[in-house]
Amino acid sequence: MGNQEVENAKKVLKENGYFVENLWSINDVKGRYNCNDDQAQKVLDKALTNEATMEQIWFAIDDIAYDEGFELID
Fold it and tell me: Does residue 6 lie in a domain region?
């Protein structure tokens, strides 16, 4: 997939409410570790979907929304 295709895909996602400014790629992993594409994808999957990561993201969302004065929906 070329760079323009990636940018087009990000545009479609952003238009549909997704945050796309911080995306991770297998190249991020492969730039630090000697592994193949499948191994790098597995690392990303485990790193980005583990409970600690998800809890930290929700904590940050709640903290920033509170600072912005947003009312929590019950």
Answer: no
Contact 40, 30 (CB under 8 A): yes
Residue 1 has pLDDT above 90, yes or no: no
Distances 49 to 3, 6, 35, 52 between C-alpha atoms, Å:
26, 22, 20, 8
Burial 13-46 (b: 16+ CB within 10 A, else e): eeeeeeeeeeeeebeebeeeeeeeeeebeebeee
Count of domains observed in the chain: 1
**Could you tell me which of 10, 6, 27, 28 has the C-alpha nearest to residue 19?**
10
Give the pTM.
0.80
Residues 54 and 60: beta-carbon distance below 8 Å: no
